[in-house]
Amino acid sequence: MIAESWRLFGLLVFAGIFLLLAARPKLYPGIWELAIFHKAATATYLFAVTSDVPEAAATAALDAGLAILLVVAYLLGRADRNWERFRNRSAAIPEDRSV
Predict the structure, then answer these.
(1) Do the Cβ atoms of 29 and 83 come closer than 8 Å?
(2) Rounded to two decimals, what is the model's pTM?
(3) Keywords in UniProt for this one (predicted)?
(4) Residue 39's domain spans which residues?
(5) I need a surface site. Which of 49, 51, 69, 95 has the fewest CB within 10 A?
């Protein structure tokens, strides 16, 4: 029961993350990378460790496909540029022109 509740809430969290990324793909630096890492790591783990369980293989294939789709969306949406405002702090903080 604990594992199923963990899975349920995890799916809800990921649904929320994907909604945020769909609504504002350039606003959340780091979220793309975390989602890609999670799906790729889950798929890799399931392929490597639980290859004898049929349900695990199906889940691994689904997560691998989702990781690939996330990477494609990341590249097409140029989400790597999301970090520019943090690298260049002067671009992120507007000047005070009241003086």
Answers:
(1) yes
(2) 0.73
(3) Membrane, Transmembrane, Transmembrane helix
(4) 2-84
(5) 95
Would you list the DSSP string of 29-83? TTHHHHHHHHHHHHHHHHHHH-TT-HHHHHHHHHHHHHHHHHHHHHHHTTGGGGG
**What total of structural domains would you count in the chain?**
1
Query: Tell me: the pLDDT tens digits for 70-86?
Result: 999 999 988 888 888 77
Is 95 domain-assigned? no
Q: Sign of torsion, CA 9 13 14 16?
A: positive
In a domain, 80, yes or no: yes
- Examine the pLDDT at 1 and tell me if it is beyond 80: no
- Answer whether residue 52 is part of any domain: yes
Residue 15, in any domain of the structure: yes
Q: Which amino acid is at 27?
A: L
Per-residue pLDDT reduced to its tens digit, 29-63: 889 999 999 999 999 998 888 877 878 888 889 99
